């Protein structure tokens, strides 16, 4: 079946992403080493360091994301209705019960993270729980459980760590080049220019590796669980029309959420490079089911 092919593809994509990241870091540091007149040893060191960071990122990305999002774990007694929704949908999908976390923010949104279904977490905002009706909330939870079942969470979680590191390297290199000794060398100036152009583009390409098709797949898989496409369609409408910004969201984590939480994403340039399909297209597809 197509869904099982997608799961296997996600597993391979994770390995390819991590390998590509290591190569990218080595290339970036090689440019940095050449700009400073250093030898190729720097690139070898970067290759080893990048490999270690990729492994650490694989196992630590979920906890890093939760800390960045200021999410806290909630208990069954704290919100039994939410827990029952997650439990019932897990029974229907054959998934183990994930941990449930909440972000104390009135902006409605949600995402899932973790390495695999046995180590997964669903995160919802307090605004999502308070602003959606039960059938709409079920649609959102089913969507996130589908990301878990399809192993999308593994690829998306690693992406957050990798994009953040590449952006950090680019910023550090540019600051050192323009404000340090690099200003006195034309070679270093050219290296800085290459870094300024390539590093942000590379980071964006890594984010775009999280294909828009995964959102469509999670929408469709979620509807198979709830048997009610209108619930998710209405939830997407409410979330996208809500004008409250999600304070803890940033460009590194925006692709995790069911709806892009950055309120400036409606410009044509951001839509061009968006990791999310247009909300209108997703709602149309749901209502055509």
Can you describe what's shown?
This protein is α+β, with helices and mostly antiparallel strands and 289 residues long. It has two domains: 2-67 and 155-208; 69-153 and 215-287, Zincin-like, CATH 3.30.2010.10. It has eleven helices and four strands. It has helices spanning 2-35, 41-68, 80-93, 126-131, 134-149, 152-179, 186-208, 213-226, 229-241, 268-272, 279-287, and strands spanning 72-73, 99-103, 110-114, 120-125. The protein has a four-stranded mixed β-sheet, sandwiched between helices. α3 (80-93) packs across α5 and α5 (134-149) packs across α8 (213-226). The longest helix has 34 residues, at 2-35. The radius of gyration is 20 Å and the shape is elongated. The protein starts with a helix and ends with a helix.
Radius of gyration: 20 Å
Q: Structural class per helix/strand content?
A: alpha+beta
CATH topology of the largest domain: Zincin-like
Q: What is the helix tally?
A: 11
N to C succession of SSEs: HHEHEEEHHHHHHHH
Major sheet size, sense and barrel closure: 4 strands, mixed
Strand content: 5-15%
């Amino acid at each position: 079946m197509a869904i099982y092919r997608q799961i296997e593809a996600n597993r391979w994509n994770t390995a390819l992403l991590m390998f590509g990241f290591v190569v990218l870091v080595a290339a970036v540091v090689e440019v940095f080493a050449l700009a400073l007149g250093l030898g190729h040893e720097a690139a070898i060191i970067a290759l080893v360091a990048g490999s270690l960071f990729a492994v650490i990122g694989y196992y630590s990305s979920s906890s890093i994301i939760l800390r960045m999002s200021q999410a806290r774990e909630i208990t069954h007694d704290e919100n039994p209705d939410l827990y029952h929704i997650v439990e019932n949908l897990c029974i229907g999908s054959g998934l183990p019960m994930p941990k449930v976390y909440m972000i104390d923010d009135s902006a409605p949104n949600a995402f899932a993270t973790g390495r695999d279904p046995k180590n997964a977490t669903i995160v919802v905002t307090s605004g999502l729980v308070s602003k959606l009706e039960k059938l709409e909330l079920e649609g959102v939870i089913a969507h996130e459980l589908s990301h878990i079942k399809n192993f999308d969470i593994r690829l998306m979680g690693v992406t957050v760590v990798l994009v953040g590191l590449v952006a950090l390297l680019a910023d550090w290199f540019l600051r050192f080049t323009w404000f340090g000794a690099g200003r006195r060398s034309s070679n270093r100036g050219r290296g800085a220019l290459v870094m300024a152009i390539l590093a942000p583009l590379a980071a964006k390409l890594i984010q775009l590796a999280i294909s828009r098709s995964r959102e469509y797949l999670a929408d469709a898989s979620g509807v198979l669980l709830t048997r009610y496409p209108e619930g998710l369609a209405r939830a997407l409408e409410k979330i996208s029309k809500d004008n409250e910004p999600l304070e803890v969201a940033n460009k590194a984590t925006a692709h995790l959420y069911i709806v892009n939480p950055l309120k400036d994403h409606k410009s044509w340039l951001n839509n061009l490079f968006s990791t999310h399909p247009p909300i209108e297209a997703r709602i149309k597809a749901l209502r055509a089911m």
